[in-house]
Amino acid sequence: MVVPAYLIVIGTSAGGMPALTRLVAQLPGTLPAAVLVVQHLSPDSMGEQLAARLGEHTGLRCQLATNEAPLEAGHLYLARPDHHLLVKDQRLLVAKGPRENGYRPAVDALFRSAAVAYGPRVVGLVLTGMLHDGTAGLEFVKRCGGTAVVQDPIDAEFPSMPESALRAVAVDHVAPLSQLGPLLMQLVDPARPLPPEKVVIPPDLQLEAAIAERVVGTVEQVNQLGHLVPLTCPDCGGNLWQANHGHVLRYRCHTGHTFTAAALAEHNQQELEETLWVALRMMEERKSLLLGMANHDNGHWSQRQEERLADLKRHVNRMREFLVNGNEGTSPTPGQS
């Protein structure tokens, strides 16, 4: 067994498997690093088949991550569906902990764990994907002295994840997929002087990594990481703390769910839209009830009741138009019917 001098950690989502297939084809089995990959997958995905598919295109030995398996150079470990992939004492940890940014496995969880375990010997790479997972993770890598790499968004099938990382993190390298393999080999080249093994790992990241390993934290621990804010966790309904460290605005609850501000805003938007659809349904039902009452009263329906029904019809039409058009942040035109 060859202990890896470096860890290459890769995060991807939409468009990830084609991108990974092209990337690993550029990497030899003699790579002096272990490669750990989080690909967002549905919980019922067949991880073994995906690992085997990657193995057909590379000299790396590709396998689904197994808890407590030792890290070996020249190996690629794919996160199991519905499980976080972490690193501890040159071993893999596979844990079914709380979701981060709504994902399990989460890119941020892997990047943070690897950064704390390997410090400046970590190369973090964000590939094609939607939304924001991996942005905070790349900052974790940088804060621990590692190297941040992003696929060129112009080259990515889905550029959202690379673009988010580039907006928030001082990325070291940006390259198209065709150049990422040679770049990674250069960054982990044995001929280069190794970075120091011992660096000062930020205490907040050490604590967050320890919480992820134990699955659930405590209120006292989260108080060390941030300050309580008047927001609730969309996953469990608990209180949220705003992280006090780093440049990427983040939130977490004491049960372990974590979100970047962008991911939390996305969750809140979805919840708001669902609430408005429920309100629209209830207004439609009330309109039907009032119409039924008007028809049943045989002309004794009062003018005030007619006005209420007309107002309700206008509200229903305005809300329906607002939802169908998806005009986030705007208001329907007053009086529109």
Brief rundown of the structure:
With 337 residues, the protein is α/β, with parallel strands linked by helices. The protein has helices at 16-24, 47-55, 107-118, 135-143, 160-168, 177-187, 203-214, 219-225, 261-296, 303-325; strands at 6-12, 33-39, 61-64, 75-78, 84-88, 91-95, 122-126, 147-151, 173-175, 226-232, 239-243, 250-252, 258-260.
List strands and helices in order, with pairings.
Layout: E1 6-12, H1 16-24, E2 33-39, H2 47-55, E3 61-64, E4 75-78, E5 84-88, E6 91-95, H3 107-118, E7 122-126, H4 135-143, E8 147-151, H5 160-168, E9 173-175, H6 177-187, H7 203-214, H8 219-225, E10 226-232, E11 239-243, E12 250-252, E13 258-260, H9 261-296, H10 303-325
Parallel strand pairs: 1-2, 1-7, 2-4, 3-4, 7-8, 8-9
Antiparallel strand pairs: 5-6, 10-11, 11-12, 12-13
Pfam families: CheB_methylest
Catalytic activity: [protein]-L-glutamate 5-O-methyl ester + H2O = L-glutamyl-[protein] + methanol + H(+)
EC number: 3.1.1.61
